[in-house]
Design goal:
The complex is a heterodimer of chains A (458) and B (224).
Chain A (H helix, E strand, L loop, with lengths): L4 H49 L1 E4 L6 E6 L2 E6 L5 E2 L2 E6 L5 E3 L3 H5 L11 E5 L2 E9 L9 E7 H54 L14 H50 L4 H33 L7 E4 H15 L5 E6 L4 E4 L1 H18 L5 E9 L2 E8 L6 H4 L21 H11 L3 E7 L3 E7 L1
Helix pairs in contact in A: 1-3, 3-4, 4-5, 5-9, 6-7, 7-9
Chain B lengths: L1 E5 L3 H13 L3 E5 L2 H10 L4 E5 L7 H10 L6 E5 L4 H9 L4 E4 L4 H16 L5 E4 L2 E4 L4 E4 L2 E3 L3 H12 L7 H8 L10 H13 L8 E4 L3 E4 L4
Parallel strand pairs in B: 1-2, 1-3, 3-4, 4-5
Antiparallel strand pairs in B: 6-7, 7-8, 8-9, 10-11
Helix pairs in contact in B: 2-3, 6-8
Classes of the chains: A alpha+beta (458), B alpha/beta (224).
Chain lengths: 458, 224
């Protein structure tokens, strides 16, 4: 990342802002220029018109103003005549172009310029540019006299330079304020992203999923994103924990049979044994090997079902027949003098995978055999209630205590924690996964010492 | 030396006991935590080999109970749980050693000897008295530069006595240590084995090591 997003954003709008300011400045300049020019012109024309009205021809001199002898009478210039007003120098000239009133340097200097009525003349002199407006007076005795207003171009530029100065003074501050404010706000807005990145960094460097972004309250998109990430991390952590537990459990489960096999071999190789002892050793090794093989195949099957990597093809099947057949098979093996009674409603059709459903039923039934009372009884019941099929497997064995009930579907959990008795510890976990796969659920109710009832509904 | 093996996997329990017996130790087997507690309360063991995951009462809970009863018998945990946390938990609860499955039987025997050695305050497996040395690892007994050949039971008796040299041991105590609960050989078995042992280690030497303390039992010591 060459530039931070924050810097990029700030840079981008700063450039735009400066451009806008520049354009605004130029437009202002242009408009001001013409407005001021108009103002100056207006002032020039109005002043000349007003001052023209203050010039009268009288026979006697008057106290009202300045009286100048002219053609045997007097030109009286009222006190209203303002020779310098609104930056306009006004002067009175006679017909031969000589200045007769309004003595000042500019008016004198521009004496030689021929009067033109009705429009403003622009005159270049050594001391600058001037706008000139002339009004040739008419009326008794005034013919030939003219009033000239002169305004310096600098009058206009003074106003303009004030605007320029103001702009130059104010605009950078506005830009600076906008850039700083924007940079700050962008930083604030992007802060969650930094936190997200830091959290991700910590997770990858520490390798633990327990870190959270944990933003303070807020409900903009970034806060929502952070919350979503946190939720995802929760989920991931749980999944990883369960995977870790599974791996640890699996290695634990496998270690015990390996320990037995290794110890048996070491003993048989190290001590001088009788033929019977060797046979016994080999039988033990075979038994433990079988156990490992069972654990491995159950683990693989569980993983396949759980991760849905096996191709589970669903088909119409006769569930009643499937349950009946499984029960017959299990009853034929008939462990530990337990009798099995099957009460199966015939002709219940279901959509499912025959192999997996078969596994589910046999897991439930063999579980009942395992934990049933010696010489006890197992009841298998299959019923259909509308769209719902329910399979009940009840035994009258040891039962499960209430605190262990919620754990029995956990992988490698055995209610009596005795490895030698139960199988791989995966049977119920597999059955439950199969039930889930068929959109069903396995529930259990049990009283310690009285037996357990497993119900599969889907 | 008497050892209790508490391990719910019967095949494993069986082979460990067999190996212990072959080494000349007496071994009792039990298959769950509660049973183990009863054994520990009933007899005096030199070492307890304990599985962590057991029905009824797990190994951690068992060692807590045992230690709270003031029994300081060394305990070796036998477990498939190899995480550091588990090992720390086990050792902190007062276990002397922690063996991870799968393990070598020979190593387990060495560890048994090690914890016994530690609890009897000996730095090596070799015990000495007068001109006799007894190596509990190689099961070799040498007196006056001559190697003495002993049967497993005789050696077990000698080992028990030399570990408690100078201490008068009652017949009952000896019996308890040398034979496990399955033995029903009669009360004079101790006297019989003491006679065998005397014949092998004391005959032909001026200094007798095995002495009878009338009314109390036997003691291994130099001089009277």
């Amino acid at each position: 990342m060459a530039l931070k997003v924050r810097t990029k954003i700030t840079l981008w709008y700063s450039v735009i802002l400066v451009l806008i300011m520049a354009v605004l400045f130029l437009v202002t300049m242009y408009i001001s220029d013409s407005v001021i020019l108009n103002n100056v012109m207006d002032a020039l024309i109005e002043t000349v018109a007003e001052n023209s009205g203050a010039v009268t021809y009288r026979l006697q001199s008057s106290d009202d103003g300045v009286s100048i002898a002219y053609n045997g009478a007097y030109i009286v210039i009222d006190d209203d005549f303002r020779s310098l007003y609104r930056g306009v120098y006004t002067a009175l000239y006679n017909s031969s172009g000589n200045l007769i009133y309004g003595e000042d340097f500019i008016s004198a200097q521009l004496e030689t310029i021929e009067p033109v009525t009705g429009r403003v003349q622009t005159v270049q002199t050594s001391s600058g540019t001037y706008y000139i407006f002339d009004n040739i007076l008419t009326g008794t005795g005034l013919d030939g006299l003219w009033v000239r207003g002169i305004v310096s171009e600098s009058q206009k530029n003074d106003s303009l330079s004030f605007i320029v100065r103001l702009s130059i003074l104010v605009m950078p501050w506005i830009v600076l304020l906008a850039v700083a404010g924007g940079y700050f706000i962008a930083g604030r807005m992007l802060d969650p992203i930094n936190k997200i990145r830091e959290t991700a960094d910590e997770i990858s460097s520490e390798g633990t999923l327990s870190r959270r972004i944990n933003l303070e309250s807020g409900n903009d998109e970034l806060h929502l994103l952070a919350d979503t990430f946190d939720m995802m991390l929760d989920k991931l952590e749980k999944m990883f924990e369960s995977e870790k537990q599974f791996t640890s459990d699996a290695s634990h489960e496998l270690r015990t049979p390996v320990a037995v096999i290794m110890a048996q071999c070491e003993y048989a190789l190290g001590e001088s044994c009788s033929r019977e002892e060797y046979m016994e050793t080999l039988e033990t090794i075979q038994r433990q090997g079988k156990k490992m093989s069972d654990i491995i195949s159950d683990m693989l099957e569980f993983t396949r079902i759980e991760q849905k990597t096996t191709d589970v093809s669903m088909a119409d099947l006769d569930f009643s027949k499937l349950v009946a057949e499984t029960c017959d098979e299990m009853a034929a093996i008939g462990e530990r003098g337990i009798t099995l009674t099957a009460d199966i409603e015939p002709g219940i059709a279901a959509v499912g995978n025959a192999g997996l459903l078969n596994r589910l039923v046999s897991n439930l039934v063999s579980n009942a055999y395992k934990y049933g009372r010696e010489g006890g009884h197992i009841d298998v019941k299959l019923r259909r209630d509308g769209e719902k099929i329910s399979l009940t497997v009840a035994d009258d064995g040891v039962g499960i205590s209430a605190d262990k009930l919620d754990k029995i579907f956990n992988r490698f959990y055995r209610a009596d924690a005795s490895r030698s008795r139960a199988g791989t510890g995966l049977g119920l976990a597999i059955a439950r996964e199969i039930a889930h796969l068929h959109g069903g659920e396995i529930t259990v109710s049990s009283a310690e010492g009285e037996g357990s009832i497993f119900i599969f509904e889907f | 030396m008497r050892v209790l093996v508490a391990e719910d996997e019967r095949d494993l329990n069986n082979i460990v006991c067999k190996k212990l017996t072959a080494e000349g130790y007496s071994a009792d087997a039990c298959y769950d935590g509660k049973e183990a507690l009863e054994y520990i309360e009933a007899a005096e063991y030199d070492v307890i080999i304990l599985d962590v995951m057991m029905p009824e009462m797990d190994g951690f809970e068992l060692i807590k109970t045992v230690r709270s009863c003031g029994i300081s018998t060394p305990v070796i945990f036998l477990t498939a749980r190899d995480s550091v946390e588990d090992r720390i938990a086990g050792l902190d609860l007062g276990a002397s050693d922690y063996v991870i499955k799968p393990f070598s039987l020979a190593e387990l025997m060495a560890r048994v000897r090690a914890v016994v050695r530690k609890s009897s305050g000996n730095a090596t497996n070799i015990y000495e008295i007068a001109d006799m040395t007894v190596d509990t690892a190689t099961k070799k007994v040498v007196r006056g530069g001559k190697e003495i050949d002993l049967s497993a039971k005789e050696f077990a008796l000698l080992e028990f006595m030399i570990r408690n040299k100078g201490v008068v041991l009652s017949r009952e105590k000896i019996e308890n240590n040398i034979w496990n609960f399955d033995y029903e050989g009669g009360t004079n078995a101790v006297d019989v084995y003491i006679r065998y042992l005397r014949r092998k280690i004391d005959e032909g030497f001026d200094t007798k090591l095995i002495h009878t303390v009338r009314g109390s039992g036997y003691v291994l010591r130099e001089g009277k």
